[in-house]
Predict the structure.
Amino acid sequence: MIIQTQAQTKTLPASQVKNSFGSIVSQVRSGEYKAVIVENRGEPMVAIVPVGELQAMRVFEEQEKQKKALAMLRQAREEVQARIKGKLTKQEADEIANRFSRELVEDLEKEGKVRFERKSS
């Protein structure tokens, strides 16, 4: 029976990282350590992580941006619908809210704040 232990995070002073950088990179890359936290005067400054972990963080950040943007869109849509309730038909209100949502998504994409993948119909 093989028991695998989960790689841990190691914390090192910057001076030691400077002197042993190649070895530390090898330890992180091989999975001996999940990450190495680099401290300066006892304060964590940066982390050395595998590239795959960095890519996963970027994907997660993008997903979080999209979730926030969708929440903003839903809230904006509800506000538009509430303001025009009784003044327009439901269909007219929905069309305005949909147009507003599309325009907001396009603006957020142009600003680089979100990236949406559109489903092909």
About this structure: The chain has a mean pLDDT of 82.
